[in-house]
Amino acid sequence: MNERAAKEAVYRIVRHSGLQPDFIVRENRGIPTAVAFVRDRQRIIEYDPKFMAKVMDSTCTNWSAISILAHEIAHHLLGHTLDPDRVRPGDELACDHYSGFILRAMGASLATAMAAMEVAGDPHGTQHHPPQHARLDAIRQGWTQALEISERKEPEPFVVQDAFRFTVRFTGDPNTYYVNANDELVWFNTFAEPIEFGILERLEGGDPKFRLSWSDQIFHVDGREAIWKRTTAGMQMLVGRMEPYGR
C-alpha cells in the first residue's frame, strides 16, 4: 500500500463518518505496524508499508489494510491521541468496534472486517492491547451494529446479561470495567455486549486480596479496594479502585 492508496482509503473511511478528512497519512519504515499521534496540532497516521503488505498478502484482501487504518482513525476521533501514554484496554476495543462498524458501512463482509486481526492480533495481548479474542469480539459487534442500522432494525433494549461482582476504574481512564460472576474482567459500552479480556484471582490470606491481570499487565487489589501496580523501579503505585458492583 503506497501513500496514495493509503490516503484514498482514509478519505473513504472518514467519508462514512460524515467528517472532513484532515489527517496527514504517510509511510514510516521505522515503526513495526501503524500508529496515530498528534504533533504540532496536526493529526498524523503513520504505517509501515512492509507490515501492510504482509497483512494483505496473508489475508488476500485489501480490506485488512483498510481495517488497520480505520482503527488508527478511531484513536484520533475518540480523543485517545491527546493522552497517548496511558494503558487503556477499553480504548483499543472501542477502536476495534469502530473499525468493524465502518467496514460494514463500506461494504465489507464480516470475515474481511476481521481478517487483519485474525492474522496480526496477539492471542495473549500485549502491554497496550487486549488479547486477540476480545478484539475480534469488538470488531464483530461493530460490524453487526452497522448491519442492523442498514437494515433499519429497531435496537433491542440493552440489558446486561452478566451478574457483575465488581466495578473497576483506573486513574486517567474514562472507561469502566467490570468483573462478572466467572471472575472475568470485561469491558462494554451502550452499543456492545460485554467483552472479556482479563481475569480476577483471589489471593489466599493477607493483603493484597486480589490480582487483576490481562496479557502482561498485573495489578493487585488491597482490602481497602485500592488497585496497585508495581513500577519498573519496584515501587507500588496507586492506579485505581475496585468496588462491589451496584454500590
Describe the structure.
With 247 residues, the chain is of the alpha+beta class. It has two domains: 148 residues, Zincin-like, CATH 3.30.2010.10; 79 residues. The protein contains six helices and eleven strands. The strands form two sheets. It has an eight-stranded antiparallel barrel. Strands 1-3-2 form a three-stranded mixed β-sheet. β6 and β7 form a beta hairpin.
Quote the average pLDDT. Answer: 90
Radius of gyration: 19 Å
**Which structural class best describes the helix and strand composition?**
alpha+beta
Number of domains: 2
Going by CATH, the homologous superfamily of the largest domain would be Metalloproteases ("zincins"), catalytic domain
Helical stretch tally: 6
* Overall 3D form: globular
Number of strands: 11
Helix content: 25-40%
For this entry, what is the oligomeric state of its chains?
A: single chain
Q: Output the strand order for the largest sheet.
A: 4-5-6-7-8-9-10-11
Write the layout of secondary structure elements.
Layout: H1 3-15, E1 23-27, E2 34-39, E3 42-47, H2 49-59, H3 63-77, H4 89-106, H5 110-120, H6 132-150, E4 166-170, E5 177-179, E6 184-187, E7 195-202, E8 210-214, E9 217-221, E10 226-230, E11 236-244
Parallel strand pairs: 1-3
Antiparallel strand pairs: 2-3, 4-5, 4-11, 5-6, 6-7, 7-8, 8-9, 9-10, 10-11
Helix pairs in contact: 1-3, 2-5, 3-4, 3-5, 4-6, 5-6
